[in-house]
Design a protein that fits this description.
This protein is an alpha+beta fold and 358 residues long. The protein folds into 2 domains: 248 residues, BirA Bifunctional Protein, domain 2; 100 residues, CO dehydrogenase flavoprotein, C-terminal domain (Enolase-like, domain 1). Strands 7-8-9-10-6-2-1-11 form an 8-stranded mixed β-sheet, sandwiched between helices. The protein starts with a strand and ends with a strand.
Amino acid sequence: MKWRLLDTGAQDAPHNMALEKVLLASSADGTAPNTLHILEFFPCVLLGYNQSVSEEIEEGYCNQNGIEINRRISGGGCIYMDDGTLGWEIIAKKNAPNIPGNIEDMYRKLCGGVINALSEFGIKADYRPLNDVEVGGRKISGTGGTELSDSFIFHGTVLVDFHADIMVKALKAPLKKLDDKQVADFKMRTVCMRELLGYIPPMADVKERLTDAFAEMLGVKFEAGGLTSGETEALNMELPLFSSEEWIYGRHVRPRKNSFNIFEHKAEGGLIRVSLLLDDSRGYIKSAFITGDFFAYPERGILALESALKNAPIRRDALAKRIGCFFATQDLIIPGAGAEDFISAVIGAAQGGQKIES
């Protein structure tokens, strides 16, 4: 079975984001084949579809440093991209052979393409549900997607190189309110191929191995091709919108009161420090960051707990239940600390702690 291999090289953010919409629409109307799209970026920050520039991005820093701002057609969080980031996208019919019908199974399988490609460089990567690829508990690829009619787009990244300092400055993250050690801990949660290999592999090599891995996993043969005439015409029509303030700034959300709370709990096994970004207006956790001097086996278990806390109601009973269920179902060992310690730490941060308005 033949699929199109589309490599559009490095493009600006409006081009890359508009092309996602065009490729998905052309798949949905049956005028283009199933496609693997390889893309590269100039420095940019990309919002999820439902996010707001004012809430997520340090606009002044980005403008001063030539970092573009744009918006994806899919949901999810805000991300920083530059010439060290290789992007990939599967655009296909939902009923294409070897594409699982269950969304979680599809995520797992398609992330397998990245895992297999990295293995060709001697990098052992693993799938972290729901949509990340990690190496030793550190994220090297994030993914997401959306759908239209009977077609879907599932896109992701491979961090060939990564500039964590720029990311922290470009995004309106609560990290700026943490101390240097906590920020350093956060940066350690992401890893790139340069750090793992000791050199930056040629982008052409990464593309080739990623393409081969997807071909084998999907049981298809890729043939290099360009845009159809219809796609080119549609792209030219979409570019003005994706370059406009209407697209970038138009999705204004109602201003919400957010706060950033930090709480420390001393357990027998060490200090547990919980930092929570809260949506006070709606009463839930936007993000969680857990550090301390305790030991966790495996270390990635703390990342999984942070993920489990995202979007959790800040009610005491709801948090106790969620954390209790997490520890009951995960193979996580923390000497000298258990579920009750983390319940106390998270509830302490959710209901007080050191509150900082954001």
